[in-house]
Amino acid sequence: MTLPPLLYRHDLEQVSDDEPQVVDDLNGAFDRILETTHGDYGHAVRAVHAKAHGIMAGTFSIDAGLPPELAQGLFASPGEHPAWLRISTNPGDILDDAIALPRGLALKVGGVSGERLPGAEGTTQDFVMINSPAFIMSTAKTFAGNLKLLARTTDKAEGAKIALSKVLQIVNGALGKVGLESSKLASLGGAPQANPLGETYFSAVPFRYGDYVAKFRLRPVSPGLTDLTGRDIDTKGRPNAIRETIRQEMARIEGEWAFEVQLAWDEEKQPVEDASTLWDEAEAPFARVAALRVSAQDSWDPNLVEKVNETMRFSPWTGLAAHRPLGNVNRARQATYRHAADFRQAANRCPIHEP
């Protein structure tokens, strides 16, 4: 790139008057999901990404010798940090793995110093990621409408969900042959059941990156992970097939992911407020700034599951001011993620705190 990266400015964000109402709508949908699942399970689970498939501890290593535009915030100084990651599926109810849905990976990096975001406890930096480079909806308002529909499917017949998922997979597979895969179909159950360990995960929405603006990517690089890229998991008769497969694989894999930054260069081509816009890598390339390393371990160790699933929350608003979440989708996440975590904490009588 011959031009300097886009400098962060406050006016890159455009706050709409209806955003408080959007937050209320999202909280209402979350409440419907949370109350329904709490009644079903006798235990409160997350309003989104309720089902975890793998929980691991590792090390997040910041690369040395980064150029000035990449040596920002957390990444300003090389070093190693403890890290925890949680691989999940996006609905708020715990479903049979035969229902194919998009994946998420939440990463918490510990031992982070610097000015904190408002309300961000502890000394951690969270990265909440999905296996898609852009958000399915352009705005939080459209997402709120979609979440209302999803909330109404909570607690419905699982057999119907499995059947619908299979139909959507077939349709999306046919579209893929002519280059027309539908991210919307995938979000509704048409995604393949690929092994999550081989997937690449994205922040999908932008963040402040010190003096600049960026999106993030976590890409598998070690052979044990890349060998699993695109490999489907057989879920027939196995409601927890993904968890079982990850546990089997991680017992022997030394995993390494490259953590990469995609700096914005043009505010029109890499907008902050439209979460559905794909930032073209040819115009805004990714660059590695760190590595996430996870040694072979039990990815469903009861003690770690208890620690991460019950006493931690993951939020893009937990971290440094240098990595402030940007755009209306991120702004809506601040109050709604806290709202959902508060429900879980109160219902389970289990304090949620930073490690």
Overall description:
It is built from 8 helices and 9 strands. The chain has 355 residues and is of the alpha+beta class. It has a single domain, classed as Catalase HpII,  Chain A, domain 1. Helix 1 runs parallel beside helix 2, helix 1 runs parallel beside helix 8 and helix 3 (158-176) runs antiparallel to helix 4.
SS-based class: alpha+beta
Envelope shape: globular
Low-confidence stretches: 160-190
Overall tally of structural domains = 1
Percent helix: 25-40%
CATH-defined architecture:
Beta Barrel
Summarize this entry quickly:
With 355 residues, the protein is of the alpha+beta class. The chain is built from eight helices and nine strands.
Which SSEs are present, and which pair or pack?
Layout: H1 19-41, E1 51-62, E2 79-89, E3 103-109, E4 125-130, H2 140-153, H3 158-176, H4 183-190, E5 201-202, E6 207-209, E7 212-220, H5 223-226, H6 241-250, E8 255-263, E9 286-294, H7 302-311, H8 328-348
Antiparallel strand pairs: 1-2, 1-9, 2-3, 3-4, 5-7, 6-7, 7-8, 8-9
Question: Which structural traits does this protein have?
Answer:
alpha+beta, 355 residues, 9-stranded antiparallel sheet, Catalase HpII,  Chain A, domain 1
